[in-house]
Amino acid sequence: xxxxxxxxxxxxxxxxxxxxxxxxxxxxxxxxxxxxxxxxxxxxxxxxxxxxxxxxxxxxxxxxxxxxxxxxxxxxxxxxxxxxxxxxxxxxxxxxxxxxxxxxxxxxxxxxxxxxxxxxxxxxxxxxxxxxxxxxxxxxxxxxxxxxxxxxxxxxxxxxxxxxxxxxxxxxxxxxxxxxxxxxxxxxxxxxxxxxxxxxxxxxxxxxxxxxxxxxxxxxxxxxxxxxxxxxxxxxxxxxxxxxxxxxxxxxxxxxxxxxxxxxxxxxxxxxxxxxxxxxxxxxxxxxxxxxxxxxxxxxxxxxxxxxxxxxxxxxxxxxxxxxxxxxxxxxxxxxxxxxxxxxxxxxxxxxxxxxxxxxxxxxxxxxxxxxxxxxxxxxxxxxxxxxxxxxxxxxxxxxxxxxxxxxxxxxxxxxxxxxxxxxxxxxxxxxxxxxxxxxxxxxxxxxxxxxxxxxxxxxxxxxxxxxxxxxxxxxxxxxxxxxxxxxxxxxxxxxxxxxxxxxxxxxxxxxxxxxxxxxxxxxxxxxxxxxxxxxxxxxxxxxxxxxxxx
Length: 551
Ligand SMILES: Cc1ncc(C[n+]2csc(CCOP(=O)(O)OP(=O)(O)O)c2C)c(N)n1
Ligand SMILES: [Mg+2]
Prior knowledge:
Low-confidence stretches: 1-6
Strand order of the largest sheet: 11-10-9-12-13-14-15
Distance between the termini: 61 Å
Bound molecules: thiamine diphosphate, magnesium ion
Radius of gyration: 25 Å
Number of helices: 20
Mean pLDDT: 93
Number of strands: 21
Structural class: alpha/beta
Largest sheet: 7 strands, mixed
Protein backbone atom coordinates (compact mmCIF):
# COMPACT_ATOMS: atom_id res chain seq x y z
CA UNK A 1 0.00 0.00 0.00
CA UNK A 2 1.68 3.21 -1.08
CA UNK A 3 -0.26 6.20 0.09
CA UNK A 4 -1.03 6.15 3.77
CA UNK A 5 -4.35 7.79 3.04
CA UNK A 6 -5.57 4.96 0.86
CA UNK A 7 -4.68 2.39 3.48
CA UNK A 8 -6.66 4.13 6.19
CA UNK A 9 -9.19 1.96 7.91
CA UNK A 10 -12.69 3.24 7.47
CA UNK A 11 -14.32 2.47 10.76
CA UNK A 12 -16.70 0.32 8.77
CA UNK A 13 -16.53 -3.44 8.98
CA UNK A 14 -16.58 -5.69 5.94
CA UNK A 15 -20.08 -6.90 6.77
CA UNK A 16 -21.33 -3.36 7.29
CA UNK A 17 -19.85 -2.18 4.03
CA UNK A 18 -21.53 -5.01 2.13
CA UNK A 19 -24.87 -4.16 3.73
CA UNK A 20 -24.47 -0.44 3.02
CA UNK A 21 -23.70 -1.10 -0.64
CA UNK A 22 -26.72 -3.39 -1.04
CA UNK A 23 -28.99 -0.90 0.62
CA UNK A 24 -27.68 1.90 -1.60
CA UNK A 25 -28.54 -0.25 -4.61
CA UNK A 26 -32.20 -0.49 -3.60
CA UNK A 27 -32.27 -3.76 -1.67
CA UNK A 28 -34.69 -3.82 1.24
CA UNK A 29 -34.90 -7.54 2.04
CA UNK A 30 -32.47 -10.42 2.38
CA UNK A 31 -33.80 -13.98 2.12
CA UNK A 32 -32.16 -16.97 3.74
CA UNK A 33 -31.58 -19.26 6.69
CA UNK A 34 -28.79 -18.63 9.20
CA UNK A 35 -26.15 -21.08 10.41
CA UNK A 36 -23.15 -20.77 12.66
CA UNK A 37 -20.86 -19.67 9.84
CA UNK A 38 -23.07 -16.71 9.04
CA UNK A 39 -24.65 -15.77 12.37
CA UNK A 40 -22.34 -12.79 12.91
CA UNK A 41 -23.40 -11.36 9.59
CA UNK A 42 -27.07 -12.05 10.37
CA UNK A 43 -26.67 -9.94 13.52
CA UNK A 44 -25.32 -7.13 11.38
CA UNK A 45 -28.27 -7.53 9.00
CA UNK A 46 -30.76 -7.37 11.83
CA UNK A 47 -29.11 -4.20 13.11
CA UNK A 48 -29.28 -2.65 9.65
CA UNK A 49 -32.05 -1.19 7.51
CA UNK A 50 -32.36 -4.42 5.56
CA UNK A 51 -35.10 -6.83 6.62
CA UNK A 52 -34.16 -10.45 7.08
CA UNK A 53 -36.70 -12.92 5.69
CA UNK A 54 -36.10 -16.47 6.85
CA UNK A 55 -37.80 -19.18 4.84
CA UNK A 56 -38.57 -22.85 5.48
CA UNK A 57 -35.86 -24.01 3.10
CA UNK A 58 -32.92 -22.31 1.40
CA UNK A 59 -34.18 -23.10 -2.07
CA UNK A 60 -37.32 -21.14 -1.22
CA UNK A 61 -35.11 -18.20 -0.22
CA UNK A 62 -33.27 -18.51 -3.51
CA UNK A 63 -36.47 -18.39 -5.59
CA UNK A 64 -37.82 -15.52 -3.48
CA UNK A 65 -34.60 -13.54 -4.05
CA UNK A 66 -34.81 -14.28 -7.77
CA UNK A 67 -38.36 -12.94 -8.03
CA UNK A 68 -37.42 -9.93 -5.89
CA UNK A 69 -34.53 -9.25 -8.26
CA UNK A 70 -36.81 -9.44 -11.31
CA UNK A 71 -39.02 -6.76 -9.82
CA UNK A 72 -36.63 -4.56 -7.83
CA UNK A 73 -33.51 -4.93 -9.99
CA UNK A 74 -31.45 -6.70 -7.33
CA UNK A 75 -32.14 -9.55 -4.91
CA UNK A 76 -30.09 -11.12 -2.13
CA UNK A 77 -30.02 -14.60 -0.65
CA UNK A 78 -27.84 -15.20 2.39
CA UNK A 79 -27.08 -18.70 3.62
CA UNK A 80 -24.64 -20.76 5.58
CA UNK A 81 -21.73 -22.71 4.19
CA UNK A 82 -22.43 -25.66 1.84
CA UNK A 83 -25.50 -27.13 3.55
CA UNK A 84 -27.27 -23.89 2.75
CA UNK A 85 -25.18 -22.74 -0.17
CA UNK A 86 -25.51 -25.89 -2.20
CA UNK A 87 -29.27 -25.81 -1.72
CA UNK A 88 -29.42 -22.52 -3.58
CA UNK A 89 -27.30 -23.86 -6.43
CA UNK A 90 -30.49 -24.72 -8.31
CA UNK A 91 -32.24 -21.40 -7.84
CA UNK A 92 -29.00 -19.59 -8.71
CA UNK A 93 -28.69 -21.65 -11.87
CA UNK A 94 -32.21 -20.56 -12.81
CA UNK A 95 -31.31 -16.92 -12.14
CA UNK A 96 -28.23 -17.29 -14.31
CA UNK A 97 -30.12 -18.93 -17.17
CA UNK A 98 -32.95 -16.39 -17.10
CA UNK A 99 -30.78 -13.35 -16.32
CA UNK A 100 -31.90 -12.37 -12.87
CA UNK A 101 -29.50 -10.25 -10.79
CA UNK A 102 -29.18 -12.17 -7.53
CA UNK A 103 -26.37 -11.75 -4.99
CA UNK A 104 -25.61 -15.01 -3.18
CA UNK A 105 -23.90 -14.39 0.16
CA UNK A 106 -22.59 -17.39 2.00
CA UNK A 107 -21.02 -17.56 5.41
CA UNK A 108 -17.91 -19.75 5.62
CA UNK A 109 -15.26 -20.98 8.04
CA UNK A 110 -12.91 -18.23 9.18
CA UNK A 111 -9.60 -17.80 7.38
CA UNK A 112 -7.76 -18.69 10.58
CA UNK A 113 -9.80 -21.83 10.97
CA UNK A 114 -8.71 -23.03 7.55
CA UNK A 115 -5.05 -23.43 8.48
CA UNK A 116 -3.94 -27.07 8.46
CA UNK A 117 -7.08 -28.02 6.57
CA UNK A 118 -9.16 -29.38 9.48
CA UNK A 119 -12.35 -31.34 8.94
CA UNK A 120 -14.82 -28.66 9.94
CA UNK A 121 -18.53 -29.37 9.79
CA UNK A 122 -20.29 -28.60 6.47
CA UNK A 123 -17.02 -28.86 4.54
CA UNK A 124 -17.38 -31.08 1.46
CA UNK A 125 -13.96 -31.63 -0.04
CA UNK A 126 -11.79 -28.52 0.12
CA UNK A 127 -12.58 -25.16 1.66
CA UNK A 128 -13.13 -23.74 -1.79
CA UNK A 129 -15.44 -26.49 -3.08
CA UNK A 130 -18.55 -24.37 -2.76
CA UNK A 131 -16.90 -21.36 -4.41
CA UNK A 132 -15.86 -23.55 -7.34
CA UNK A 133 -19.44 -24.76 -7.76
CA UNK A 134 -20.69 -21.18 -7.79
CA UNK A 135 -18.07 -20.10 -10.30
CA UNK A 136 -20.10 -22.09 -12.80
CA UNK A 137 -23.37 -20.46 -11.78
CA UNK A 138 -22.39 -16.81 -11.49
CA UNK A 139 -20.69 -14.07 -13.49
CA UNK A 140 -18.35 -13.05 -10.68
CA UNK A 141 -17.34 -14.39 -7.29
CA UNK A 142 -15.23 -13.30 -4.37
CA UNK A 143 -14.04 -14.73 -1.08
CA UNK A 144 -13.70 -11.80 1.29
CA UNK A 145 -10.67 -13.27 3.01
CA UNK A 146 -8.49 -10.17 3.12
CA UNK A 147 -9.49 -6.86 4.75
CA UNK A 148 -7.09 -5.03 2.44
CA UNK A 149 -9.09 -5.92 -0.64
CA UNK A 150 -12.56 -6.79 0.70
CA UNK A 151 -14.27 -3.47 -0.12
CA UNK A 152 -12.77 -3.45 -3.57
CA UNK A 153 -13.91 -7.02 -4.14
CA UNK A 154 -17.44 -6.18 -3.00
CA UNK A 155 -17.57 -3.31 -5.48
CA UNK A 156 -16.17 -5.42 -8.30
CA UNK A 157 -18.72 -8.18 -7.79
CA UNK A 158 -21.67 -5.81 -7.36
CA UNK A 159 -20.66 -4.03 -10.53
CA UNK A 160 -20.81 -7.36 -12.36
CA UNK A 161 -24.29 -8.32 -11.10
CA UNK A 162 -25.70 -5.04 -12.39
CA UNK A 163 -23.73 -5.07 -15.61
CA UNK A 164 -24.68 -8.60 -16.66
CA UNK A 165 -27.97 -9.06 -14.76
CA UNK A 166 -26.77 -12.47 -13.66
CA UNK A 167 -25.99 -13.86 -10.21
CA UNK A 168 -22.77 -13.28 -8.28
CA UNK A 169 -21.28 -15.08 -5.29
CA UNK A 170 -19.78 -13.51 -2.18
CA UNK A 171 -18.25 -15.74 0.47
CA UNK A 172 -17.85 -14.18 3.86
CA UNK A 173 -15.48 -16.07 6.20
CA UNK A 174 -16.86 -15.67 9.69
CA UNK A 175 -13.70 -14.09 11.13
CA UNK A 176 -13.82 -11.35 8.50
CA UNK A 177 -17.36 -10.07 9.10
CA UNK A 178 -16.41 -7.70 11.90
CA UNK A 179 -12.94 -6.75 10.60
CA UNK A 180 -12.48 -3.16 9.56
CA UNK A 181 -12.08 -2.75 5.84
CA UNK A 182 -9.76 -0.52 3.91
CA UNK A 183 -10.93 2.36 1.77
CA UNK A 184 -10.05 1.99 -1.82
CA UNK A 185 -9.86 4.42 -4.62
CA UNK A 186 -13.02 3.68 -6.50
CA UNK A 187 -12.23 3.28 -10.14
CA UNK A 188 -13.52 5.98 -12.43
CA UNK A 189 -17.14 5.21 -13.31
CA UNK A 190 -16.98 2.67 -16.01
CA UNK A 191 -19.27 3.78 -18.81
CA UNK A 192 -19.49 1.46 -21.71
CA UNK A 193 -20.18 3.27 -24.90
CA UNK A 194 -21.00 2.22 -28.41
CA UNK A 195 -18.57 2.81 -31.22
CA UNK A 196 -20.30 5.81 -32.90
CA UNK A 197 -19.44 4.69 -36.44
CA UNK A 198 -20.69 1.13 -35.83
CA UNK A 199 -23.85 2.45 -34.18
CA UNK A 200 -24.56 4.83 -37.06
CA UNK A 201 -24.07 2.11 -39.64
CA UNK A 202 -26.22 -0.38 -37.73
CA UNK A 203 -29.00 2.16 -37.33
CA UNK A 204 -28.84 3.13 -40.98
CA UNK A 205 -29.20 -0.47 -42.04
CA UNK A 206 -31.94 -1.24 -39.53
CA UNK A 207 -33.99 1.84 -40.33
CA UNK A 208 -33.73 1.16 -44.06
CA UNK A 209 -34.94 -2.38 -43.53
CA UNK A 210 -37.81 -1.42 -41.25
CA UNK A 211 -38.99 1.43 -43.47
CA UNK A 212 -38.94 -0.77 -46.54
CA UNK A 213 -40.85 -3.56 -44.82
CA UNK A 214 -44.44 -4.33 -45.64
CA UNK A 215 -45.28 -5.78 -42.24
CA UNK A 216 -42.67 -5.18 -39.53
CA UNK A 217 -43.25 -6.67 -36.12
CA UNK A 218 -41.41 -6.44 -32.79
CA UNK A 219 -40.65 -9.52 -30.73
CA UNK A 220 -39.73 -8.39 -27.22
CA UNK A 221 -38.11 -10.60 -24.65
CA UNK A 222 -36.67 -10.71 -21.20
CA UNK A 223 -33.62 -8.50 -21.67
CA UNK A 224 -35.79 -5.47 -22.38
CA UNK A 225 -37.13 -5.94 -18.89
CA UNK A 226 -33.85 -6.81 -17.18
CA UNK A 227 -32.00 -3.84 -18.62
CA UNK A 228 -34.81 -1.41 -17.79
CA UNK A 229 -35.68 -0.61 -21.40
CA UNK A 230 -39.46 -0.99 -21.21
CA UNK A 231 -40.10 2.73 -21.46
CA UNK A 232 -37.89 2.95 -24.55
CA UNK A 233 -39.68 0.00 -26.10
CA UNK A 234 -43.05 1.65 -25.55
CA UNK A 235 -41.79 4.82 -27.17
CA UNK A 236 -40.50 2.88 -30.16
CA UNK A 237 -43.73 0.92 -30.59
CA UNK A 238 -45.92 4.00 -30.38
CA UNK A 239 -43.73 6.21 -32.49
CA UNK A 240 -43.57 3.78 -35.39
CA UNK A 241 -46.96 2.19 -34.71
CA UNK A 242 -45.49 -1.29 -35.07
CA UNK A 243 -47.31 -4.19 -33.38
CA UNK A 244 -45.42 -6.34 -30.92
CA UNK A 245 -45.46 -9.83 -29.51
CA UNK A 246 -43.48 -11.15 -26.57
CA UNK A 247 -41.99 -14.54 -25.88
CA UNK A 248 -43.25 -16.61 -22.96
CA UNK A 249 -40.04 -15.79 -21.03
CA UNK A 250 -40.59 -12.11 -21.71
CA UNK A 251 -44.34 -12.20 -21.07
CA UNK A 252 -45.53 -8.92 -19.49
CA UNK A 253 -42.49 -7.00 -20.69
CA UNK A 254 -45.23 -4.63 -21.89
CA UNK A 255 -48.86 -4.44 -20.88
CA UNK A 256 -50.79 -7.01 -22.89
CA UNK A 257 -53.72 -4.63 -23.01
CA UNK A 258 -51.83 -2.29 -25.30
CA UNK A 259 -53.72 -2.00 -28.59
CA UNK A 260 -50.59 -2.97 -30.54
CA UNK A 261 -50.04 -6.15 -28.51
CA UNK A 262 -50.39 -9.40 -30.42
CA UNK A 263 -49.85 -11.71 -27.44
CA UNK A 264 -47.20 -14.36 -26.97
CA UNK A 265 -45.34 -15.71 -29.98
CA UNK A 266 -44.11 -19.23 -29.40
CA UNK A 267 -43.97 -20.99 -32.75
CA UNK A 268 -46.51 -23.77 -33.02
CA UNK A 269 -47.13 -23.66 -29.27
CA UNK A 270 -48.64 -20.20 -29.33
CA UNK A 271 -51.84 -18.97 -30.90
CA UNK A 272 -52.08 -19.54 -34.63
CA UNK A 273 -52.99 -15.97 -35.54
CA UNK A 274 -49.94 -14.60 -33.71
CA UNK A 275 -47.74 -17.19 -35.33
CA UNK A 276 -49.06 -16.41 -38.78
CA UNK A 277 -48.58 -12.67 -38.33
CA UNK A 278 -45.01 -12.92 -36.99
CA UNK A 279 -43.90 -15.55 -39.46
CA UNK A 280 -45.31 -13.73 -42.45
CA UNK A 281 -43.49 -10.54 -41.44
CA UNK A 282 -40.72 -9.37 -43.71
CA UNK A 283 -38.95 -7.65 -40.81
CA UNK A 284 -38.98 -9.21 -37.33
CA UNK A 285 -37.30 -6.86 -34.88
CA UNK A 286 -36.16 -9.08 -32.03
CA UNK A 287 -35.27 -7.09 -28.94
CA UNK A 288 -33.48 -8.85 -26.11
CA UNK A 289 -34.70 -12.20 -27.35
CA UNK A 290 -33.37 -15.50 -25.99
CA UNK A 291 -33.53 -18.21 -28.62
CA UNK A 292 -34.47 -20.96 -26.16
CA UNK A 293 -36.31 -24.13 -27.11
CA UNK A 294 -39.41 -23.12 -25.17
CA UNK A 295 -39.39 -19.54 -26.53
CA UNK A 296 -39.14 -21.01 -29.99
CA UNK A 297 -41.95 -23.47 -29.41
CA UNK A 298 -39.57 -26.45 -29.36
CA UNK A 299 -38.05 -25.23 -32.58
CA UNK A 300 -41.33 -24.93 -34.40
CA UNK A 301 -40.72 -21.19 -34.76
CA UNK A 302 -39.95 -20.06 -38.28
CA UNK A 303 -37.82 -16.97 -37.87
CA UNK A 304 -35.60 -16.40 -40.83
CA UNK A 305 -32.38 -14.44 -40.11
CA UNK A 306 -32.63 -12.98 -43.62
CA UNK A 307 -35.79 -11.16 -42.45
CA UNK A 308 -34.67 -10.34 -38.90
CA UNK A 309 -32.97 -7.76 -36.78
CA UNK A 310 -31.77 -9.12 -33.46
CA UNK A 311 -30.44 -6.88 -30.70
CA UNK A 312 -29.41 -8.12 -27.26
CA UNK A 313 -26.97 -7.03 -24.58
CA UNK A 314 -24.47 -9.42 -26.11
CA UNK A 315 -24.92 -9.17 -29.83
CA UNK A 316 -26.47 -7.18 -32.65
CA UNK A 317 -27.26 -8.66 -36.01
CA UNK A 318 -29.17 -7.28 -38.94
CA UNK A 319 -29.92 -9.93 -41.51
CA UNK A 320 -26.56 -11.70 -41.80
CA UNK A 321 -24.45 -8.73 -40.65
CA UNK A 322 -23.21 -8.65 -37.09
CA UNK A 323 -22.01 -5.52 -35.35
CA UNK A 324 -19.46 -5.22 -32.57
CA UNK A 325 -19.45 -2.50 -29.96
CA UNK A 326 -23.06 -1.44 -30.27
CA UNK A 327 -24.83 -1.29 -26.93
CA UNK A 328 -28.37 -2.58 -26.80
CA UNK A 329 -29.69 0.56 -25.14
CA UNK A 330 -27.96 2.88 -27.62
CA UNK A 331 -29.43 0.89 -30.49
CA UNK A 332 -32.94 1.17 -29.06
CA UNK A 333 -32.54 4.86 -28.34
CA UNK A 334 -31.16 5.35 -31.82
CA UNK A 335 -34.20 3.70 -33.39
CA UNK A 336 -36.46 6.12 -31.55
CA UNK A 337 -34.63 9.21 -32.70
CA UNK A 338 -34.06 7.90 -36.23
CA UNK A 339 -36.32 8.65 -39.15
CA UNK A 340 -38.63 5.66 -38.77
CA UNK A 341 -41.80 5.99 -40.80
CA UNK A 342 -44.98 5.83 -38.85
CA UNK A 343 -47.24 3.05 -40.05
CA UNK A 344 -50.83 4.03 -40.71
CA UNK A 345 -53.01 1.25 -39.55
CA UNK A 346 -52.11 -2.29 -38.81
CA UNK A 347 -54.33 -5.12 -39.62
CA UNK A 348 -52.99 -7.25 -36.85
CA UNK A 349 -54.62 -9.79 -34.57
CA UNK A 350 -55.39 -8.72 -31.06
CA UNK A 351 -56.23 -11.34 -28.50
CA UNK A 352 -59.75 -11.20 -27.20
CA UNK A 353 -59.82 -10.67 -23.49
CA UNK A 354 -62.29 -12.62 -21.40
CA UNK A 355 -64.10 -9.74 -19.77
CA UNK A 356 -66.97 -11.89 -18.88
CA UNK A 357 -67.05 -15.53 -18.12
CA UNK A 358 -70.30 -17.37 -17.98
CA UNK A 359 -70.11 -20.03 -15.31
CA UNK A 360 -71.72 -23.30 -16.19
CA UNK A 361 -72.96 -24.46 -12.81
CA UNK A 362 -71.94 -27.99 -11.86
CA UNK A 363 -69.85 -28.38 -15.00
CA UNK A 364 -66.67 -30.30 -14.17
CA UNK A 365 -63.59 -28.07 -14.22
CA UNK A 366 -61.36 -28.29 -17.26
CA UNK A 367 -57.95 -26.70 -17.71
CA UNK A 368 -59.09 -24.64 -20.64
CA UNK A 369 -62.12 -23.21 -18.89
CA UNK A 370 -60.13 -22.64 -15.70
CA UNK A 371 -57.70 -20.35 -17.52
CA UNK A 372 -60.55 -18.54 -19.22
CA UNK A 373 -62.06 -17.88 -15.82
CA UNK A 374 -58.70 -16.66 -14.50
CA UNK A 375 -58.37 -14.22 -17.37
CA UNK A 376 -61.52 -12.48 -16.27
CA UNK A 377 -60.23 -12.49 -12.70
CA UNK A 378 -57.00 -10.55 -13.28
CA UNK A 379 -56.80 -6.90 -12.34
CA UNK A 380 -54.18 -4.18 -12.54
CA UNK A 381 -52.96 -5.21 -9.11
CA UNK A 382 -52.54 -8.91 -9.86
CA UNK A 383 -49.10 -10.36 -10.42
CA UNK A 384 -49.36 -13.84 -11.92
CA UNK A 385 -46.61 -16.16 -10.68
CA UNK A 386 -46.54 -19.52 -12.38
CA UNK A 387 -44.68 -22.75 -11.89
CA UNK A 388 -43.52 -25.25 -14.46
CA UNK A 389 -46.12 -27.57 -15.98
CA UNK A 390 -49.53 -26.69 -17.31
CA UNK A 391 -49.52 -23.68 -15.00
CA UNK A 392 -46.94 -22.14 -17.33
CA UNK A 393 -48.39 -23.35 -20.60
CA UNK A 394 -51.99 -22.58 -19.76
CA UNK A 395 -51.00 -19.08 -18.63
CA UNK A 396 -49.52 -18.23 -22.02
CA UNK A 397 -52.79 -16.75 -23.21
CA UNK A 398 -53.70 -14.90 -20.04
CA UNK A 399 -54.02 -11.18 -20.59
CA UNK A 400 -51.59 -9.51 -18.24
CA UNK A 401 -52.70 -6.00 -17.37
CA UNK A 402 -49.55 -4.12 -16.45
CA UNK A 403 -45.87 -4.49 -17.08
CA UNK A 404 -43.90 -7.00 -15.03
CA UNK A 405 -47.00 -8.68 -13.73
CA UNK A 406 -46.08 -12.14 -14.93
CA UNK A 407 -43.25 -14.24 -13.49
CA UNK A 408 -42.39 -17.76 -14.50
CA UNK A 409 -39.32 -19.95 -14.96
CA UNK A 410 -39.98 -20.24 -18.67
CA UNK A 411 -36.48 -21.26 -19.72
CA UNK A 412 -34.66 -23.04 -16.89
CA UNK A 413 -37.98 -24.58 -15.92
CA UNK A 414 -37.30 -25.68 -12.37
CA UNK A 415 -40.33 -26.90 -10.49
CA UNK A 416 -40.93 -25.27 -7.12
CA UNK A 417 -40.44 -21.68 -8.25
CA UNK A 418 -43.87 -20.19 -7.85
CA UNK A 419 -44.85 -20.26 -4.17
CA UNK A 420 -41.56 -18.83 -2.86
CA UNK A 421 -41.26 -16.47 -5.83
CA UNK A 422 -44.62 -14.96 -4.90
CA UNK A 423 -43.15 -14.03 -1.51
CA UNK A 424 -40.23 -12.23 -3.13
CA UNK A 425 -42.55 -10.56 -5.63
CA UNK A 426 -44.91 -9.20 -3.04
CA UNK A 427 -42.15 -7.93 -0.77
CA UNK A 428 -40.54 -6.26 -3.77
CA UNK A 429 -43.80 -4.55 -4.68
CA UNK A 430 -46.37 -4.64 -1.87
CA UNK A 431 -49.04 -2.99 -4.01
CA UNK A 432 -49.42 -6.24 -5.97
CA UNK A 433 -51.35 -9.31 -4.91
CA UNK A 434 -49.88 -12.54 -6.28
CA UNK A 435 -52.00 -15.10 -8.04
CA UNK A 436 -49.87 -18.23 -7.86
CA UNK A 437 -50.68 -20.97 -10.36
CA UNK A 438 -48.87 -24.13 -9.43
CA UNK A 439 -49.11 -27.82 -10.28
CA UNK A 440 -49.62 -30.29 -7.45
CA UNK A 441 -46.18 -31.81 -8.12
CA UNK A 442 -44.42 -28.45 -7.96
CA UNK A 443 -46.42 -27.48 -4.89
CA UNK A 444 -45.19 -30.57 -3.10
CA UNK A 445 -41.61 -29.35 -3.63
CA UNK A 446 -41.71 -25.86 -2.09
CA UNK A 447 -45.33 -25.33 -1.04
CA UNK A 448 -44.33 -25.25 2.62
CA UNK A 449 -43.20 -21.68 1.99
CA UNK A 450 -46.89 -20.83 2.39
CA UNK A 451 -45.90 -20.80 6.06
CA UNK A 452 -43.36 -18.06 5.34
CA UNK A 453 -45.98 -16.01 3.51
CA UNK A 454 -48.34 -16.47 6.44
CA UNK A 455 -45.72 -15.34 8.95
CA UNK A 456 -45.09 -12.24 6.87
CA UNK A 457 -48.81 -11.42 6.61
CA UNK A 458 -48.75 -11.69 2.83
CA UNK A 459 -51.93 -12.53 0.96
CA UNK A 460 -51.24 -14.59 -2.18
CA UNK A 461 -54.04 -16.56 -3.80
CA UNK A 462 -52.58 -19.98 -4.51
CA UNK A 463 -54.30 -22.08 -7.11
CA UNK A 464 -53.10 -25.68 -7.05
CA UNK A 465 -53.76 -27.47 -10.33
CA UNK A 466 -54.50 -30.83 -8.80
CA UNK A 467 -54.27 -33.45 -11.53
CA UNK A 468 -52.89 -36.19 -9.28
CA UNK A 469 -49.34 -36.05 -10.58
CA UNK A 470 -46.87 -34.95 -13.17
CA UNK A 471 -49.41 -34.16 -15.84
CA UNK A 472 -46.97 -32.65 -18.33
CA UNK A 473 -44.90 -35.80 -18.23
CA UNK A 474 -47.92 -38.06 -18.59
CA UNK A 475 -48.46 -36.51 -22.00
CA UNK A 476 -44.85 -36.96 -23.03
CA UNK A 477 -44.26 -40.42 -21.61
CA UNK A 478 -46.50 -41.97 -19.00
CA UNK A 479 -45.64 -44.41 -16.25
CA UNK A 480 -46.31 -45.01 -12.56
CA UNK A 481 -43.55 -42.55 -11.69
CA UNK A 482 -45.89 -39.71 -12.68
CA UNK A 483 -48.38 -40.44 -9.87
CA UNK A 484 -48.15 -38.52 -6.61
CA UNK A 485 -49.98 -38.75 -3.31
CA UNK A 486 -53.00 -36.47 -3.42
CA UNK A 487 -52.74 -34.05 -0.53
CA UNK A 488 -55.66 -32.18 0.92
CA UNK A 489 -54.34 -28.80 -0.16
CA UNK A 490 -57.37 -26.93 1.11
CA UNK A 491 -56.61 -28.08 4.65
CA UNK A 492 -53.14 -26.55 4.70
CA UNK A 493 -54.37 -23.24 6.14
CA UNK A 494 -55.91 -25.17 9.02
CA UNK A 495 -52.65 -26.98 9.68
CA UNK A 496 -50.67 -23.76 9.52
CA UNK A 497 -53.14 -21.83 11.61
CA UNK A 498 -54.06 -19.12 9.14
CA UNK A 499 -55.65 -18.37 5.79
CA UNK A 500 -58.49 -20.08 3.95
CA UNK A 501 -58.76 -23.19 1.84
CA UNK A 502 -61.23 -24.19 -0.89
CA UNK A 503 -61.87 -27.27 -2.92
CA UNK A 504 -63.09 -26.61 -6.46
CA UNK A 505 -64.32 -29.47 -8.60
CA UNK A 506 -66.82 -27.56 -10.70
CA UNK A 507 -66.97 -24.21 -12.43
CA UNK A 508 -69.25 -22.69 -9.84
CA UNK A 509 -67.04 -23.90 -6.99
CA UNK A 510 -64.01 -22.31 -8.64
CA UNK A 511 -65.92 -19.14 -9.26
CA UNK A 512 -67.11 -18.74 -5.71
CA UNK A 513 -63.65 -19.65 -4.32
CA UNK A 514 -62.03 -16.97 -6.47
CA UNK A 515 -64.56 -14.35 -5.48
CA UNK A 516 -64.23 -15.13 -1.78
CA UNK A 517 -60.45 -15.14 -2.08
CA UNK A 518 -60.49 -11.80 -3.84
CA UNK A 519 -62.64 -10.23 -1.15
CA UNK A 520 -60.50 -11.74 1.58
CA UNK A 521 -57.51 -9.53 0.95
CA UNK A 522 -56.12 -9.99 4.43
CA UNK A 523 -55.24 -13.64 4.11
CA UNK A 524 -53.62 -16.38 2.15
CA UNK A 525 -56.15 -18.35 0.13
CA UNK A 526 -55.45 -21.79 -1.26
CA UNK A 527 -57.72 -23.23 -3.93
CA UNK A 528 -57.42 -26.93 -4.63
CA UNK A 529 -58.64 -27.19 -8.24
CA UNK A 530 -59.43 -30.79 -9.13
CA UNK A 531 -58.67 -31.63 -12.73
CA UNK A 532 -58.72 -34.78 -14.75
CA UNK A 533 -55.18 -36.29 -14.79
CA UNK A 534 -55.19 -36.33 -18.58
CA UNK A 535 -56.78 -32.95 -19.16
CA UNK A 536 -54.49 -30.24 -20.53
CA UNK A 537 -54.34 -26.78 -21.97
CA UNK A 538 -54.31 -26.33 -25.74
CA UNK A 539 -50.67 -25.12 -25.53
CA UNK A 540 -49.59 -28.23 -23.64
CA UNK A 541 -51.43 -30.35 -26.14
CA UNK A 542 -49.32 -28.91 -28.92
CA UNK A 543 -46.10 -29.08 -26.87
CA UNK A 544 -46.58 -32.68 -25.79
CA UNK A 545 -47.15 -33.68 -29.37
CA UNK A 546 -43.71 -32.29 -30.27
CA UNK A 547 -41.82 -33.58 -27.23
CA UNK A 548 -43.17 -37.10 -27.34
CA UNK A 549 -41.54 -37.50 -30.72
CA UNK A 550 -38.12 -36.89 -29.15
CA UNK A 551 -38.28 -39.52 -26.38
C1 LIG B 1 -37.04 -29.55 -10.15
C2 LIG B 1 -37.62 -30.29 -11.33
N1 LIG B 1 -37.70 -31.64 -11.30
C3 LIG B 1 -38.24 -32.31 -12.36
C4 LIG B 1 -38.67 -31.64 -13.47
C5 LIG B 1 -39.25 -32.40 -14.67
N2 LIG B 1 -40.67 -32.09 -14.82
C6 LIG B 1 -41.12 -31.22 -15.75
S1 LIG B 1 -42.75 -30.98 -15.70
C7 LIG B 1 -42.93 -32.11 -14.46
C8 LIG B 1 -44.27 -32.39 -13.87
C9 LIG B 1 -44.88 -31.21 -13.20
O1 LIG B 1 -45.94 -31.67 -12.42
P1 LIG B 1 -46.94 -30.64 -11.76
O2 LIG B 1 -46.18 -29.62 -11.00
O3 LIG B 1 -47.98 -31.39 -11.02
O4 LIG B 1 -47.56 -29.87 -13.01
P2 LIG B 1 -48.44 -30.54 -14.19
O5 LIG B 1 -47.49 -30.99 -15.24
O6 LIG B 1 -49.21 -31.67 -13.60
O7 LIG B 1 -49.29 -29.41 -14.68
C10 LIG B 1 -41.71 -32.64 -14.09
C11 LIG B 1 -41.51 -33.67 -13.04
C12 LIG B 1 -38.54 -30.23 -13.45
N3 LIG B 1 -38.89 -29.47 -14.48
N4 LIG B 1 -38.04 -29.59 -12.36
MG1 LIG C 1 -49.80 -32.06 -11.62
